[in-house]
Amino acid sequence: MRPDRSGFTLIELLIVVVVIGILADFTVTEGVNITINEATLGQGWAATGWHDALPSRVCGIYYGNASPANATPATAPGVIACQP
Questions:
Q1: So what's the pLDDT on residue 61?
Q2: Is the CB of residue 79 less than 8 Å from the CB of residue 61?
Q3: 8 Å CB contact between 61 and 47
Q4: What is the pTM for the complete model shown?
Q5: How many CB atoms lie within 10 A of CB 71?
Q6: Are the C-beta atoms of residues 46 and 68 closer than 8 Å to each other?
């Protein structure tokens, strides 16, 4: 029989430290804008995004049965495309 144990193992503590480290390093990039142009639950979605420093360079992506027109310049589902 194994005696009752209390506390955490070294592996459990290491995993917690790694997760906290990852979360601490996460930073939000200011100036990034994303707009969801279409979203149908369980059907698909379309979005565009741009950065304040390059407002004329818009990128788009769509997935599922969303309209590519709502994600211009994207032309294929799941593939990010950006204006030159």
A1: 94
A2: yes
A3: yes
A4: 0.64
A5: 26
A6: yes
User: CB of 73 within 8 A of CB of 81?
Assistant: yes
Amino acid occupying residue 48: T
Tens digit of each residue's pLDDT (9 = 90 or more) over 30-76: 999 999 999 998 889 999 999 999 999 999 999 999 999 999 999 99
Pair 31, 49: CB distance under 8 Å? no
Decide which of 2 and 36 is more confident.
36
Distance CA 47, CA 33 (A): 10
pLDDT at 9: 83
Residue type, 84: P
| CA-wise closest residue to 45 among 68, 63, 71, 70 | 63
Phi-psi region of 61 (alpha: psi -120 to 50; beta: other; left: phi over 0): beta
Q: Which of 83, 30, 31 is nearest to 60 (CA)?
A: 83
